[in-house]
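Homework-ish question, so no full write-ups if that breaks the rules, but can someone show me the predicted structure for this set?
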Amino acid sequence: MKKRILIVDDDMDYLFQMRVKVEQMGFETITAESQAEAEKIILEIKPDLCILDLMMESDDSGFVLSYKIKKRYPDVPIIIATAVTAETGMTFDIRAEESKRWINADLFLDKGIRNDQLHREIKKLLKL
Amino acid sequence: MATYKILIIDDEQGIRDGTRRILQNFRVDYPFMDEQIDFQVLEAGTGAEGIELIDKEQPEILLLDNKLPDIQGVEVLEYVKSKQYDIVVVMITSYASLELAVKATRDGAFDFIPKPFTPQEIRASVENITKQIFLKRMTQTLNSTGKQIRFQFLSVLSHELKAPLNAVDGYLKMMKERQFGNNLEAYEQMIDRSMERIKGMRNLILDLLDLTKIESGKPTQKLQEVDVRKIVQLAIDTIRPYAIQKDVDIYLNNREAVIMNADPGEIEIIMNNLISNAVKYNKTGGRVDVFLQRLPETLTITVSDTGIGMSEEDKNRIFEDFVRIKNQQTRNITGSGLGLAIVRKIVDMYHGSIEVNSVPEQGSSFIISLPVPGK
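A: Not a homework solution, just the prediction itself:
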């Protein structure tokens, strides 16, 4: 059975392009354009993996969403895809103990990541 | 309450005790200081002891006798300078010669107190210095937060500029790789989306140009007698095609000229932003009303719409740079997030005020009040 990946991003073009990429890797996708929409989806559906944008309704939507998904489905791996580091020079490090405790995403990826790298990271998280 | 440390270096026990007594319960306040400042007095009898305390305690103020048992007071002063400590130094000396005064001032002494001094002299000097330090610190804080805001602005700006580039870049790559085979419709959609993103970027750049004009300051402000009604009419004409598309009617509720001294370019920016927002965030079949009211002292501009309105929480955020209200109803509305920030900046330049009344689902009113410049 195809693994199902939830992609959440408020940039509809990025969302579309990401969906196409991920589907070409052979996964099934569900998409949401906001934190609120994603929160509704996870009540009904348990995805196998999530790729979340960081800044949506609020600057930390991705973190909050990550927290809520993990609370409901502790075993679902979460990638937070952000353009923040590349564009602002601000860095997050989820390996820092304090961040890890509440952000609990499994991986931070830059939005500019190449397809093959993304594919590799997804396979690793899904233990494929 | 803030406490500043004062270090007194003097070999005479009597002077040290006296100074401590004088400053012990002394407080300094200033009309716009939020808090009073009081003092902790530290003391040293020799230059060496003094330097040790300077390193350890980093006092704000140093009261320094020039004639010390081991080294000269000016040597302590030189030490403070060489370490680049931010300490205001006051020389206390009974040997105040011109030569010493010149040297000490050159090395950065802020004030002189002749010995013997009266309690009043010490207090006056300390009060003066305290205010100076306070102002200097406040300026530093303001500068650094100013820089911080600038940095934040540029960060968000680069994000806002790159997001559309990435989107267009992504579509071009997909088309180049012919990812949708011969499905021409899919490619056409990608072209449409790319053009939409480029349009958004162009609007952002136009807004940035407006912002630059404002931020470059008042020298470019060309105050002249303008007919605000005429400017509103022009703005309405510009937005009309878009309003027709959205089936929104725009009404200007003034028949006569409304004259005021202002920069026509700035009034135009205000009107363009408010009216285009009123159309953008309206509902199909809605309306926009513009009212101008010229009183002897003020000009009031009201732009009301029958649109989607906004929550109390959103109302407080909309004037910030790059803030756009994101929800289900606004997801297909594009904007740079700078329009209202620009409006607010202009209104501030005129020392005016802007307020918003809004009811979700019913509409919003923006009311700008500009004082009429005196003759």
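Now go work out the reasoning yourself. Hint: Chain A touches chain B through 22 residues (CB under 8 Å).
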